[in-house]
Structure formats: structure tokens, C-alpha cells
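#dry-run=false #mode=assembly
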Amino acid sequence: MSTALLKFDDLVCGYGDTMVLRGLSGAVGPGRVLGVLGRNGVGKTTLMRALTGFLPLREGAVTLGGRDLARALPHQRLALGMAYAPQEDVVFGDLSVQENLWLHLDDRDPDRYAACLALFPRLVERTSQRAGSLSGGERKLLSFTRTLGLRAALSILDEPTEGVQPENIERMVALVRARKAQGASFVIVEQNLEFLLAVADDLMAIDHGECLLKGEAAEFGREALEAHLMV
Ligand SMILES: Nc1ncnc2c1ncn2[C@@H]1O[C@H](COP(=O)(O)OP(=O)(O)O)[C@@H](O)[C@H]1O
Ligand SMILES: [Mg+2]
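#status=ok
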């Protein structure tokens, strides 16, 4: 796909001498969502760390908008338009909800968060509370909101719905679709197949650091995905 925003080719990487990813390739076009599926421990989070530069590659390449990211550190990738909401350690617990939202930004443009905060009143109610006092699902919502507020060309979300209430998951679907309609792209790791199928254009399933299946989401039946991927 020559028009891909993000491209990753033959990624090999891991921890110490153990290679977790064993030659993964994929691409994400503008305004598209790549959903990444797989059982626990197969390397989904490791792939996100490889894309975002938190883990060095042993082999392979990542490009964003045609630019090779080999030398780009995580904060430089963010400046180039790649935002990341990791699976763990999603907020600064000692800071307030509000501080979490504004800490990393130079401007105070309220429009950044308007769409998310309109749908997540819980965060507005708790704006001056310590983020550490939020439930796990609320912290995920805060991380999701902060990441969408960056208005990045590409957002990488690792299990964004983990612990989130069903009504808020539906709102997350609406927010991702709205960003997509504006041309934004996403890579989303999820265990929640319903959420993923509601937003994904393309799917990629991983097992043992290798690609099990890849293609347009519409090609795959839900039952087949469940049978292959759920424990
Ligand atoms: N920081 C780490 N150090 C060593 N091994 C790790 C580390 N993080 C993950 N792993 C191992 O890498 C493999 C893939 O983990 P991960 O990418 O987190 O899987 P997933 O996100 O699909 O559940 C697992 O065997 C896990 O134990
Ligand atoms: Mg993970």
C-alpha cells in the first residue's frame, strides 16, 4: 500500500535474547483503523512498543508518512504525529484529572477535549481529583481522552476498553469513528471483539509473534475470529 500512513516491515524484537516478534508486517492507511487481536502474551503490546520506539528493533523498519523512524525517539514520533496510549501505567496518579489532560501541552485550547468530555461527564465531575483515585476503567477513559486530544494523525491504543463500562465503550466507538471521518488513523489492540469490529477497517491477528491472519475486517466472520482468537 503506497499510500500507507504507517508501515511496518518484518519487525523482529523482544526482551534480552528472547525475540517476541518474529517478522511482523502491516500498514495503516489514512482514515483507517487497524485492529490487532490475539490471546494474552502473544506480543500485541510488544508490537505497540516497537512501533512507538519504546523497544529497539532487532530487525525490520517502521515508517510514518514515508519517513523512516529508525532514529526517532518516542517523543520525536509524537511530534511527527504518532500518539500512544499504553496498556499499563496510563495516567499520573498523583496529579489531578485536569493536570493529566494539560500537563504535556503548550496550549490550553479547550476544543481539544470538548468531544470526549461531552461524552464522559464522569471525568468532568472529577476534574480536580487525583487521577489515582479513579477506577481502572475511568483511568482508561482519561488516557483515551488525553490521547485523542493530541489530534495525532495516528493514534496507537493498547486495550483502551479494559475495565470500561459498556455505555462508555459505545461512546469510545463514536469518538474513534468521528476522528476517522476527519482522516485520522488508529492502531488498536483489543480483547473486546465487539468494540474492535465496530471501529476496525483492517484486522491483524497475532500468535506467538507471527501474523495468523490479516485483511479487511469485512472478510472475517465474527465466529471465526472468536474461535481462533479467544481463549
Ligand atoms: N518487559 C518485559 N521483559 C521481558 N519479557 C516481557 C516483557 N514484557 C512482555 N514480555 C513477554 O513478551 C511476551 C509478549 O508479551 P506482550 O507483548 O505483553 O503480550 P500481549 O500484549 O499480547 O499480551 C510474553 O511472553 C511476555 O511475558
Ligand atoms: Mg498487552
